[in-house]
Design brief:
The chain has twelve helices and ten strands. The protein is an alpha/beta fold.
Length: 260
């Protein structure tokens, strides 16, 4: 509301550009960006710090209704295309405060059901894992810092809003976290080529977590060695492994099946 921003030199526009492109800036400010009507509606209102919309977006009455009662900044269509990270911008972008979780938030509310990620590099895979974790009822996702940036625009889009509802914990030392989980009596399984037991032969009704490694290299041996059990997903044909997000989904939904 108020003056329409049309200049590229505007300090706030420059800040949005930095938040779009620079992970360090997102971490420093504790802010990330979400785009589109669905993500605006999915974001918890108390976490939204600013809303930016294009002139074209405001021409539709339904969009004006969406913004009822909320402050927003209006920019020209040209400027919105510049700050958008999508090829076909919907005309609404939000600055969102990054949520904070403690490890106990993921482990202590009923039987834990965790995804433990090491060096997952593909933003689409990471986002899909969050969506699947929500669908399967996982209690949280733990990842090391060399995974893809959870708050990059591409990863955020891939989560389809699950990032707002699935607790997560990002750690500098995944192995230390695995040791801590085992002290909490949470059984840790590694999806591993050396696994000789099929994933559906285990009992997951008590606290459990699944280690999933890098898309190409798999888990580091030092990390895999900490698992209580190795497991495998049977495959026909000549395949050695599945896409990391697919494997994670199969395992999480087996937990869901058993607990139902």
């Amino acid at each position: 509301m108020g003056t329409i921003i049309t200049g590229r030199a505007n300090p706030q526009i420059k800040n949005i550009m930095r938040l779009t492109k620079k992970p360090d800036e997102r971490r420093k400010q504790g802010i990330f960006l979400v785009e589109g009507v669905r993500m605006y509606e999915e974001a918890p209102p108390e976490q939204i710090t600013e809303v930016w919309v294009s002139q074209s977006f405001l021409k539709k009455e339904e969009n004006q209704n969406r913004l009822a009662g909320r402050d927003y900044r209006e920019v020209s269509d040209d400027i919105f295309k510049r700050i958008s990270d999508t090829q076909t911008p919907q005309g609404i972008l939000c600055m969102v405060r990054r949520p904070r979780y403690e490890l106990s938030d993921l482990t202590d509310a009923g039987p834990a059901h965790l995804l433990l990620l090491e060096d997952i590099r593909d933003p689409g895979n990471l986002g899909t894992m969050f969506r699947t974790a929500e669908g399967a009822g996982a209690t949280g996702v733990i990842m090391n810092q060399t995974c893809a940036d959870l708050f990059s625009p591409k990863t955020i889009r891939s989560t389809m809003g699950s990032v707002f509802r699935v607790p997560f914990y990002i750690t500098e030392d995944l192995r230390a976290v695995v040791r801590e989980l085992k002290q909490k009596k949470i059984t840790v399984y590694a999806a591993h080529l050396n696994g000789n037991k099929c994933y559906d032969t285990f009992d997951y009704r008590e606290g459990c977590g699944f280690l999933i490694g890098n898309e190409g290299a798999g888990l580091k041996e030092e990390t895999a060695a900490l698992a209580d059990e190795y497991l495998r997903i049977p495959m026909e044909g000549s395949l050695e492994s599945l896409n990391a997000a697919m494997a994670a989904g199969i395992l999480m939904y087996e937990v869901n099946r058993q607990r139902r």
